[in-house]
Amino acid sequence: MYSFVLAVHNILRWVAIILAILALVRAYSGWLGRRDWTATDRKIGVFFGSAMDLQLLLGLILYIVLSPTTRIAFSDFGAAMRIPDVRFFALEHILYMVVAIVLVHVGTAAARKATQAVDKHRRAAIWFSLAGLALLLGMPWFRPWLPGLG
Length: 150
Fold this sequence. Notes:
Elements: H1 2-32, H2 39-66, H3 68-75, H4 77-80, H5 84-113, H6 117-138
């Protein structure tokens, strides 16, 4: 079960990254190009947030129930903080990803509340950029890019 959930979580990260890129391209092109806010702009942001929410759900299942790494960390948290890979998954990864998810949802809500199209795009661009940065910082780049490779 652990391997399956981890593989799905790993594959879904690429979906989240692709949706983040799409959301950022649409937000910046709308902001800088002074384009109207469309249903597609809104949906891309919602899909980005939904992918991140699903990642959170899978990540919490791994973190709380299935991961041997977090089991090691929870057995002796002080000692775990001295092991970089264990510290990353027990503390840093979850922190960055929760921050990214909050920023995506703030960006989606901020864009929805703006009245002018350019303001919707600007707010989405700023908040999604911050979310993307947190996403990139919290990504386990030392893991294989696709399950089964590496």
